[in-house]
Amino acid sequence: MQAAFRITTKVLPGNKIEIELPEAEIGDNVDVFVILPEKTKVKQRSAIEIIEEVHAKRTPKSAEEIDRQLQEENYFFKDSRYFKILWFSNVNSLISAVLSSILL
After folding, report:
1. Which residues have C-beta within 8 Å of that of residue 23, sequence separation ≥ 6?
2. Do residues 34 and 17 make contact, with C-beta atoms less than 8 angstroms apart?
3. CB-based contacts of 77, cutoff 8 Å, min separation 6
4. 3-state class (DSSP) for residue 16
5. pLDDT in tens, 7-53
6. Rounded to whole angstroms, how far apart are CA atoms 90 and 76?
7. How many CB atoms are located within 10 Å of the residue 4 CB?
8. Residue 78: per-residue pLDDT
9. Chain-centroid distance, C-alpha 6
10. Vertex 91: Cα angle to 88 and 95 (nearest 5)
11. Which among 48, 20, 47 is positioned nearest to 32, based on CA atoms?
């Protein structure tokens, strides 16, 4: 009966492998099969492709649905005791509010 061995080894420098056979003698002929592992190729996608994929999975919303969702979110933030929405008519009032909150 033919003896068969399964041996896992690492590729050495120079793309060589080394195998030790306990039941072989010097000068014996042997058959060697090398099976390389499959390398998974990572598909690189652009940001646009990823965004398009996400949008393709979502159901499209009408303008009315988007407006309703924005109103619900706005209601939450206006009525939440944890958030205070400040509406500034210009940049100067924003700067003044920030400085006064820092100085308090």
Report:
1. 3
2. yes
3. 83, 85
4. strand
5. 888 999 999 999 888 888 899 998 888 888 888 777 788 888 888 88
6. 24
7. 7
8. 61
9. 36
10. 90
11. 20
